[in-house]
Specification:
Largest interface: A-B, 41 and 55 residues
Structural class of chain A: mainly alpha
Number of strands of chain A: 2
Strand order of the largest sheet of chain B: 2-1-3-13-6
Strand content of chain B: 5-15%
Mean pLDDT of chain A: 85
Mean pLDDT of chain B: 85
Number of helices of chain B: 18
Shape of chain B: globular
Low-confidence stretches of chain B: 1-34
Largest sheet of chain B: 5 strands, mixed
Shape of chain A: flat
Helix content of chain B: 40-55%
Oligomer: heterodimer
C-alpha cells in the first residue's frame, strides 16, 4: 500500500508547483514534446506488463483473497434448470498487514526456515557453478585435441530440459534402486538414505543444479577469456610470471565484468529455481528442503488456493532480491565497476 | 452462522421446488425424449478420467464404446488427466469459465470443495438420483453439500491389508493378521523365515488413518466444530505404526517416492505385506514378477484397541456447472449409463473395483468376483471422513507429520500438535482446538 501511495507523490509535486511557474512547464513541453512522444510507447508497455501486475500483487497481499471468497455471490446451477445464488458469507476484504504478520511470525508456513535453506542452496550452487565453470573454461581456452567435442559435451546438460534432468537425478539417488547407492555398496560403503535427512536431501538437489548450471557459466567465462588480448600473456611470460600469477593478474581481472554479471544472474536464477527442488527432493523430508519459492507455492496453491498469501510471498521474495541487488551494485561501484 | 446457512438452504430448496413445479411439464418432455430415441441425442462431451491410464483407463474406454452403441451421436472426448493434477487443473479451468471438462471423475474429498465454490451442477431432481436409495450410504454422503447432491458415486474403496500368499505360507502363517500386534509378529516371522521383508508402511497421512481409527481417533469433529487430530488416541495409533518400523517388522520407508517404492517391492516379492486399496489390484495382477491374482491375498486392515477400519475413499461423477444447458440431457444419459449397476459390474469384473450400488452386488459378475468378496468386509467397516470443503487440505500437514514421525523419529504428540496448530491457522480456522 505504501508503494502505491508513494507512486502518485512525485506526480503531485510538480502539479503543486504548477501554479507558481506555469510557463516553465509549458516551455519544457513545447521544447521536449517529441521526447515524451518517443518514450510513451515504452512507458505504456512497461506500465501494462510490469507495473500493473506488480502493484496488483502488492495490493492483493493486503487482502485475504482466496479462491473460495473471491466472488461476492456463489451461484449453484441445478441440473433441472434453476439457479440459486447466495451471498458469499466470507467475502474477501482488506486486511492490512495481516498476511505479512502471519508469514513473518511463522503462523503460516515456515518463512524463516525456507529463507535459511534458500540462502544455503543459493550460495552452495553459485559457488560451485562459478568455480567449476571457471575451471572448465580455463581448460577449454587452450588448444587441445578434441576441443570442439568437449565443448559440445559440456554444453549438453543445458540442452536437456530441466525436468528431464531432475527426474534422472532423482532416480540416481533413489534409496533402493538408484545408481548412487549401488556404486556406494560396490565400494563397500553403506548405502545412504538420501531423502531421509535434510542435508543429504539438499545435497542431491544441489548436485543436480550444479550439473545443470555449470555449462552456462563455462560458456560465459570462456567468451570472456577470449576477449583478453594474447599479448598480455606473452608479455607476462617474458617477464617470468608463473602460470598462477598469469591467471591471478591477467585472467581474473580480465574476466571481472563478465563474472560480476553472471554471478548476479546466477544468484537470482538459483534463488528462484523452482523445478529442481520441487521435482528432485519434493521438499522431503517433511518439508525441510523446501526453499522460498517452492514452500510459498505449496503454502499458497495446495488445497483452496490462497492468492493473497501467494502475493505476500511474492512481495517478500522480490524484496529480498531487491535488497541483494542494490547491495551488490554498491559493492561493484566501490570497486570502480560501472554496471 | 449455522442458522443462517440453514435458512438459506430452506429458502433455496423452496425456490427449487417452485421452479420445479413451474417447469414440471417441460422437464418430463426432456426426460422422455432420450428414452424414446437415443439416436436423437446429439452432443459432444469431454470427460476427464483421473484413473490410472495404464491399469484402469482402457476399461473405462471400453465402457464408453458400449455407451456409444446405444447413443451413437453423443461423442465422448475421453481425456486421461493425472490424478495428482486434476484437482487444481479443474479449479483453474472452472474459475476461468473455459476449458473445464463437462464431466469429471472427482475424488470423494473434492466434491464438497468444488460444490462450495459453485463449480458443480446440483443433481437433485434429475434421473441420476431417481433411485438414490440404491447407492451405498457412505459413498453417497461424500456428494452431499449444504443439503444438495453434487455427484454420483462411481466407485468406493478403502485401505486393506494386501499380502503375498506364497510368502505367508512359506513363513507358516495360515491366516492374515487381524490386529496390529498380530501383524507385527507375522511380519517378524516372515523376515526371519524368508528373504523378503515383512511389511512396508507408506509414510503418508492417508495411510496413517487406519492406525488412528484403530484406537478410536479422528481428525476433526464436525458436529462440535473441534480439531481432534492431536488426541491421545491418535498418538497411540502413531506409536503403533512407529513401533512396526523400529522393531524391524516393517522395512525402513524412504521419504521420497515411498509409494512407488512400496509397490515395486511388493510386486517383486521383496515385501510380503502392504496396506493399500483396490485401485492397485490390477497393477499387482499384471506384474510379471508377482504371480497373478492367485498369489494376492486381501484382508481388512488390522484393528487396534478400539476397532478396525480404513478411511472411505473412492470417486464420483460430477458435472461442471459451466457446461451449457443444452448438453444436460446427454451428460445425464452418460453419467447414468456409467453409474448403472451393469457398468459397475463390468468394472468390477475387469478391474476389481467396488460398486457403489447395492443392486450391483446381486449381479453375477460382482457376486462371484473374488476381489469384491475380499474387499466387501473392509468396505463395510470403512469409516466415513468429514465431508467439508476443507477436507482435502487435511492431508498436506498429515503427510509431513507422517514423515516426521516414521522417518525422522519425532515425538508423535509433538508432531500432531503441530498439525493441529496448522489446521487451526490455515485449514479450518472457525474450529476450536
Amino acid at each position: 500500500m505504501r508503494t502505491v501511495t508513494a507512486e502518485p507523490a512525485p506526480a503531485s509535486a510538480p502539479s503543486g508547483r504548477r501554479s507558481a511557474p506555469p510557463s516553465r512547464l509549458r516551455r519544457s513541453w513545447d521544447k521536449h514534446w517529441y521526447a515524451w512522444a518517443m518514450v510513451l510507447p515504452v512507458v505504456i508497455v512497461l506500465a501494462v506488463l510490469i507495473f500493473y501486475p506488480l502493484f496488483r500483487g502488492v495490493w492483493l497481499s493486503l487482502t485475504n483473497l482466496t479462491e473460495a471468497n473471491q466472488v461476492a455471490e456463489i451461484c449453484t446451477r441445478s441440473i433441472t434448470g434453476s439457479e440459486v445464488c447466495k451471498d458469499n458469507p466470507n467475502k474477501w476484504e482488506f486486511v492490512g498487514l495481516d498476511n505479512y504478520v502471519n508469514v513473518l511470525s511463522g503462523n503460516v508456513g515456515q518463512f524463516w526456515q525456507w529463507t535459511g535453506i534458500t540462502l544455503i542452496w543459493t550460495v552452495g550452487c553459485v559457488v560451485f557453478h562459478y568455480g567449476l565453470g571457471l575451471g572448465l573454461a580455463v581448460m577449454l581456452n587452450r588448444p587441445m585435441w578434441g576441443r570442439g567435442l568437449y565443448r559440445v559435451l559440456l554444453v549438453l546438460p543445458w540442452a536437456v530440459p530441466a525436468f528431464v534432468s531432475a527426474f534422472a537425478w532423482k532416480f540416481i539417488f533413489n534409496e533402493r534402486f538408484g545408481l548412487a547407492n549401488s556404486v556406494l555398496s560396490s565400494l563397500g560403503i553403506d548405502p545412504v538414505d538420501w531423502f531421509s535427512n535434510q542435508w543429504t536431501s539438499l545435497f542431491t538437489a544441489i548436485v543436480t543444479n550444479i550439473w545443470l548450471g555449470v555449462p552456462f557459466m563455462m560458456v560465459a567465462l570462456l567468451g570472456g577469456m577470449q576477449t583478453i588480448p594474447g599479448e598480455l600473456y606473452e608479455a607476462a611470460e617474458i617477464d617470468g610470471a608463473s602460470p598462477w600469477q598469469r591467471f591471478r593478474n591477467i585472467t581474473l581481472p580480465g574476466l571481472r565484468s563478465v563474472s560480476m554479471t553472471v554471478i548476479l544472474l546466477g544468484t537470482i536464477w538459483t534463488f528462484n529455481m523452482f523445478p529442481i527442488i520441487f521435482l528432485v527432493t519434493e521438499g522431503q523430508p517433511a518439508g525441510e528442503t523446501e526453499i522460498l519459492v517452492t514452500g510459498a507455492f505449496r503454502a499458497a496453491f495446495e488445497g483452496i488456493r490462497n492468492y493473497s498469501l501467494a502475493s505476500t510471498y511474492g512481495v517478500l521474495i522480490l524484496s529480498i532480491l531487491l535488497v541483494f541487488s542494490v547491495f551488490y551494485r554498491r559493492v561493484l561501484r566501490k570497486q570502480g565497476e560501472v554496471w | 452462522m449455522r442458522r443462517t446457512a440453514k435458512g438459506i438452504a430452506v429458502l433455496a430448496s423452496t425456490t427449487l421446488a417452485l421452479a420445479l413445479a413451474a417447469c414440471g411439464g417441460e422437464d418430463k418432455k426432456t426426460e422422455e425424449q432420450p428414452k424414446a430415441d437415443p439416436a436423437a441425442l446429439k452432443a459432444e462431451l469431454t470427460w476427464w478420467d483421473t484413473s490410472d491410464p495404464k491399469n484402469e483407463g482402457p476399461a473405462f474406454q471400453e465402457l464408453i464404446a458400449k455407451f456409444n452403441q446405444t447413443y451413437p451421436n453423443v461423442k465422448i472426448n475421453y481425456q486421461s488427466v493425472p490424478f495428482g493434477e486434476a484437482q487444481n487443473k479443474f479449479k483453474t479451468a472452472a474459475q476461468a469459465k473455459t476449458g473445464a471438462p463437462d464431466i469429471l471423475r472427482a475424488e470423494v474429498a473434492w466434491v464438497p470443495e468444488f460444490a462450495s465454490l459453485g463449480h458443480l451442477y446440483a443433481l437433485d431432481g434429475s434421473e441420476l438420483l431417481a433411485d438414490e436409495s440404491d447407492f451405498l450410504e457412505t459413498p453417497l454422503a461424500s456428494n452431499k453439500y449444504d443439503g444438495k447432491t453434487y455427484g454420483v458415486p462411481q466407485v468406493t474403496d478403502t485401505l486393506s491389508l494386501m499380502y503375498n500368499k506364497e510368502l505367508l505360507t512359506k513363513a507358516g502363517i495360515s491366516t492374515p493378521p487381524k490386529t496390529w500386534a498380530e501383524l507385527k509378529t507375522a511380519a517378524q516371522t516372515i523376515k526371519q523365515k524368508t528373504d523378503a521383508e515383512g511389511l512396508y508402511v507408506n509414510p503418508a497421512g492417508y495411510f496413517m488413518l487406519p492406525f488412528m481409527y484403530g484406537e478410536g481417533g479422528d481428525l476433526v469433529d464436525v458436529q462440535s466444530k473441534k480439531i481432534t487430530v492431536s488426541s491421545d488416541q491418535n498418538v497411540a495409533g502413531l506409536k503403533i505404526a512407529k513401533d512396526l518400523i523400529d522393531s524391524g517388522a516393517a522395512a525402513k520407508p524412504s521419504a521420497n517416492d515411498s509409494y512407488g517404492t512400496m509397490m515395486t517391492l511388493f510386486k517383486e516379492k521383496k515385501v510380503a505385506m502392504i496396506i493399500n486399496g483396490p485401485w492397485e489390484v490390477n497393477n499387482v495382477k499384471s506384474a510379471p514378477t508377482f504371480g497373478g491374482l492367485e498369489n494376492l491375498g486381501i484382508a481388512p486392515v488390522p484393528g487396534g484397541s478400539a476397532k478396525a477400519g480404513g478411511p472411505v475413499g473412492g470417486h464420483n461423477y460430477t458435472i461442471w456447472s459451466g457446461m451449457p444447458q443444452e448438453k444436460v440431457d446427454a451428460a445425464v444419459a452418460f453419467v447414468k449409463f456409467m453409474s448403472s449397476a451393469e457398468s459397475q459390474a463390468f468394472l468390477s469384473e475387469k478391474l476389481g473395483l467396488l460398486p457403489t450400488r447395492k443392486s450391483a452386488y446381486n449381479l453375477d459378475a460382482v457376486k462371484n468376483n473374488p476381489i469384491v468378496a475380499a474387499y466387501q468386509p473392509a468396505v463395510e467397516a470403512a469409516i466415513g471422513r468429514p465431508w467439508i470443503p476443507e477436507a482435502g487440505q487435511f492431508f498436506g500437514p498429515l503427510d509431513q507429520m507422517a514423515t516426521e514421525v516414521l522417518i525422522q523419529n519425532k515425538d508423535p504428540k509433538a508432531a500432531l500438535d503441530t498439525v493441529a496448530k496448522k489446521y487451526k491457522a490455515e485449514v479450518v480456522t472457525s474450529y476450536g482446538l
